[in-house]
UniProtKB/TrEMBL annotation:
Species the sequence originates in: Cladophialophora carrionii CBS 160.54
Domain Flavodoxin-like: 132-300
Keyword check for 4Fe-4S: yes
Extent of Polar residues compositional bias: 116-127
Organism phylogeny: Eukaryota, Fungi, Dikarya, Ascomycota, Pezizomycotina
Protein name (Swiss-Prot/TrEMBL): S-adenosyl-L-methionine-dependent tRNA 4-demethylwyosine synthase
Length: 793
């Protein structure tokens, strides 16, 4: 049958109908086959990719290559292997693999420390520099001289080795320990290009010095839960050299270089075992020069190696450990071994074992202020007998005695100042005569505590007195201190009877003490029985002028009435106070403000004085407003403003203090006037009352003492003792007298009963002397400036 041109569409339709019928009859079987084929192709491709990755293992091969070529740290290599191994396991999904002998364990939590305890070498990828920092502490000057010699050798090395920078030398007494021994040094240099190397030259003493504070700081830093146990691990390395005396302490166990040994152990912990060179020991009476030379040479070799390789290299088991092991091949349990250090002879330092936990203080209705710089000494063992603060055979005793102090008992002292000598010769008294009516030849300057909690840059005690945050010595009886102070004072007065110019009537008057300045050196309020001592003074009708540094609020709050209470306000803000006073307490600013609150509360009970010591470059520029705020906070009766006195010693220069920091009197006058204006802006009723230009000092007084338009800053001492013995409450205004005309602001403050002399002892014309003293303009228009030079308390 001929279908013609219409046959093709019919045939196509017939085939489509047959295919559709077949699909409906077999669609389930065909769909299953298609899906299985696609799945088989996918599985085969994934399996092929997995086998290729397993055969190549780029991550593992790279890790193995790094371990062989770079010598990476074991822990770092294990971590890299762990990551790669986990990733491969996920891809292979259970396929059998050839076991690897060094397969890494999957660990969580804190990264384990290498059991061998040595630091593996690391390749120095980028050029870097080494900055040696030399730290020392010295009372007699021996260690300071040695540190300079070591620095000179390192400087010579730096000239030949470009990666090694010129060394920097620091006295531990004049730095903030937080800046160097909590983290790496705070510097402007790039942390990526500069690595630091510590050299510590440590003497040993059997008395309390800055080294005790330094050791306590290292202890606290390591055991503080808020800080990493090894915060100095970023250092390139460290080494320690000890200076001691084998004649008194023959072995390390019996005290020879014991403090250097302890510093070395703490540094091993804090740096995570980066002792770069063995602990050096030198005997000041035999081999100190040779030992220092050999130690310095070894350190120079280490620095050269560090500058090339950038690493301390491999070490045997136990290298860098804090405590020496008796077994040569004993695997160490880790660098962080917190076993107690063995005590060392006469210089045994009490263990600061258990800190008070805030949560353990219960049963109190109000929050308890915790002093984190104090430590509990609770122990089940027998109590350790308390030692003397300043033993007679100690370097501190010798240094203070050489400076003219008479040491009373174990922690007190007495000395006469240059104004006492001046008053005996009728050449003028200090500013206390102009402000408060105290003739200097009737005043005894003493302290029941030679220890202080600050290291002020302007301290003229040459940094030889002990420092501490807590009282940890034996306590002498107040009566013994009182009698010893009077005896020492009278002996020094008697030594003046042969001096030309001493007036007989004043010499006789000086043999009856009328006033006591509790300052001199240290922190008098630190003495645990200060109230008893003040009571002895008042019992003999001796007025009490007590000075404190606003660092002991509890003792200040417990203090009973004194004739006048001084608080040193050396800065207007936290940063300036830290730079000037360099307090040992970490919560120094909180303590400071707490003391101001106490003074405000006691302003109608105690006659309070803020004493501002102006140091150019530290606390003069742009701090007037801050000082005004502090006055508004404490509301003292008086504010003394005095230019700093430069003591002219090498220790002052170490603290960064020179004659350039001493203000001229005209600068003090400008500051006083600016402060008075700032107080007036705050609505505070104060005014400039008096001055003593020769001490570079001026007095701002509360208007409470402006009675009938006249200033009453002088103390009526007879009235004070009458009120004190009467037992009734009284205010500071109840025992004041009118300020003499010659002491008022603008009159210079020189007592006309005395005679003005020049440096050669020749009399001066009164009118001209007044102009010079006040630093005001003379008739010729010339400004004559006078710098402070009075050694006042």
């Amino acid at each position: 049958m001929d279908m013609g041109e219409d046959a093709a569409p019919v045939i196509l339709a017939d085939w489509l109908d047959r295919l559709l019928t077949s699909w409906h009859d077999h669609r389930i079987l065909l769909a299953s086959g298609l899906v299985l084929s696609v799945l088989a192709i996918i599985v085969r491709r994934r399996r092929a990719a997995r086998i290729t990755l397993r055969d190549s293992s780029p991550g593992l091969e790279k890790a193995d290559w790094l371990a062989a070529d770079e010598g990476a740290a074991r822990t770092a290599t294990n971590e890299k292997n762990e990551t790669t191994s986990i990733y491969v396991d996920q891809l292979t999904s259970g396929q059998a693999r050839k076991p690897r002998p060094a397969a890494a364990r999957v660990v969580t939590g804190r990264k384990p420390v290498s059991s061998r305890g040595h630091t593996s070498p690391q390749r120095q990828t980028n050029p870097s520099y080494l900055q040696p920092l030399v730290f020392f502490s010295s009372l007699t000057g021996t260690t300071e001289q040695l540190s300079k010699k070591v620095a000179a050798e390192l400087e010579s090395l730096a000239t030949t080795q470009s990666p090694i920078l010129k060394p920097e030398v620091y006295d531990l007494s004049y730095i903030d320990l937080d800046d160097y021994f909590i983290t790496g040094p705070k510097t402007n240099k790039s942390a990526q290009n500069v690595r630091y190397f510590y050299l510590l030259l440590i003497p040993s003493y059997d008395i309390d010095t800055i080294l005790n504070t330094f050791l306590a700081h290292l202890d606290e830093t390591h055991n503080d839960f808020r800080i990493d146990t090894a915060p100095l691990a970023s250092l390139a390395g460290y080494t320690v050299f000890g200076i001691g005396d084998r004649e008194g302490w023959p072995t390390e166990e019996r005290g020879f270089c014991s403090q250097a040994v302890e510093v070395d152990r703490w540094m091993a912990k804090l740096t995570r075992r980066k002792r770069a060179y063995p602990l050096g020991l030198g005997d000041v009476k035999s081999n100190i020069e040779q030992a220092t030379k050999e130690w310095t040479g070894g350190v120079c070799d280490v620095l050269q190696e560090l500058s090339v390789s950038g690493t301390l290299g491999d070490g045997v088991p136990g290298s860098g450990a804090a405590v020496e092991s008796d077994q040569e091949d004993e695997p160490d349990a880790g660098y962080d071994n917190d076993d107690d250090f063995p005590d060392s002879g006469r210089n045994k330092r009490r263990k600061l074992a258990n800190t008070t936990d805030v949560e353990d203080v219960g049963g109190k209705s109000a929050p308890v202020a915790i002093d984190f710089t104090k430590y509990s000494t609770t122990s089940t063992s027998a109590p350790v007998p308390l030692k003397a603060m300043v033993p007679r055979e100690s370097p501190t005793h010798a240094a203070l005695t050489k400076q003219g102090y008479t040491i009373v008992g174990t922690h007190s002292g007495v000395k006469i100042c240059r104004w006492t000598k001046s008053a005996l010769r009728g050449r003028g008294s200090c500013y206390k005569n102009s402000f408060y009516g105290i003739a200097s030849h009737l005043c005894m300057e003493t302290t029941p505590s030679l220890s202080c909690s600050n290291k002020c840059v302007f301290c003229w005690r040459h940094g030889t007195n002990p420092v501490s945050t807590t009282w940890r010595w034996q306590v002498d009886d107040p009566k013994m201190i009182f009698d010893g102070a009077k005896e020492g004072h009278y002996k020094k007065i008697k030594m003046m009877r042969g001096v030309p110019g001493v007036r007989s009537e004043r010499f006789e008057e000086a043999m009856r003490i009328r006033h006591c300045a509790l300052s001199l050196v240290g922190e008098p309020i630190f003495y645990p029985r200060i109230n008893e001592f003040v009571g002895l003074l008042h019992g003999e009708r001796i007025s009490s002028f007590l000075v404190c540094n606003a660092q002991h609020p509890q003792q200040l709050d417990d203090l009973r009435r004194v004739t006048q209470l001084y608080v040193s306000i050396d800065a207007s803000n936290r940063d300036s106070l830290r730079k000037i006073d360099r307090p040992l307490h970490r919560d120094f600013w909180e303590r400071f403000n707490a003391c101001l609150d106490i003074l405000r509360a006691k302003r109608f009970e105690q006659r309070t004085v803020f004493r501002l010591t102006l140091v150019k470059g530290f606390n003069v520029e742009d701090e007037v407003e801050g000082y005004a705020d502090l006055v508004a906070k404490g509301l003292p009766c008086f504010v003394e403003i005095k230019g700093v006195t430069y003591c002219g010693t090498s220790t002052s220069s170490s603290a960064g203090l020179t004659m350039q920091n001493v203000p001229f009197y005209e600068e003090v006058v400008a500051f006083v006037e600016a402060l008075n204006t700032a107080l007036a802006k705050r609505g505070l009723e104060y005014g400039i009352a008096a001055e003593h230009a020769h001490s570079c000092c001026a007095l701002i007084a509360s208007n409470r003492f402006l009675i009938d338009g006249k200033w009453h800053t002088i103390i009526d001492y007879d009235r004070f003792f009458a009120l004190l013995q009467g037992g009734q409450d009284f205010k500071p205004e109840d025992y004041c007298k009118e300020t003499p005309e010659w002491a008022l602001w603008g009159n210079g403050g020189f007592d006309p009963r005395d005679e003005r002399v020049d440096r050669k002892g020749k009399p001066k014309e009164a009118t001209k002397a007044d102009e010079v003293a006040r630093g005001r303009k003379t008739k010729t228009g010339t400004v004559v400036a006078v710098q402070s030079g009075g050694l006042d308390f």
